[in-house]
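pinging the channel bc i need a second pair of eyes. not urgent but kinda urgent?? the chain im working w is below, pasted from the shared doc
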Amino acid sequence: MSKRLMPYFKYFGSKFRTVPYYPKPRYQTIIEPFAGSASYSTLYWWYNIHLNDIDSNVTGLWNWLIGASINDILNIPLDMPESSKLSDHMNAYQVELCKRWQRVGNNTLATVSSWNGRAGLWNSRVRDRIADQLINIRHWEVTNTTYLSLPNIEATHFVDPVYKGFEKYDYNILNYKQLAEWCLSRRGQVIVCEQEGAGWLPFKYFRQIVSPRHSKFSNEVVCEIIDGVIV
């Protein structure tokens, strides 16, 4: 129907390459309780989108992007002296955006990285694309809370939590039994993502994922639930 949006920022575990293969939304409202970079929502951006994440850095960045002007993006410099502080060149939200393009999975990096220049992750093409896409997310809603606090409304819930066993990442302390019960209690459609070996829901094989950067393979699984009934 509409052209999909490209990523607004990099995020560890992003589903950008695989979301076209997940079940399509059955409802006009999409809720992502563990939003991250919101790959599912960028595919169906014209729907009523509700992003939630317990990480205030993520939700703060999304809220800023939703309200940002084109110049807020275009004024972020491209060429900065290596090892200089990002905060010397831009405001806090611009810093957060650049950090996530410089180091996927490391949002604490506060200086200009040589990796940025070698990989070309932050460049004029990316900057201009983000600026052009701002108009498409003005209607999105963002909350910063635990998934348990989200209202139980009829919607498509795209549930992409930190996978069980990945203890090294922040905000990963999940009670997966409780999360399974929450998913089964949702009204509407629930699409739950995980990796092979997870047993907290009756997952089915989805597809094999290849990391283009590390040439590593992983088998992704999925569980779809409609009004409490596993499909």
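so Residues 19-55+139-230 form a domain with the Rossmann fold fold (CATH 3.40.50.150). and The mean pLDDT is 88. — does that match what u expected or am i reading it wrong
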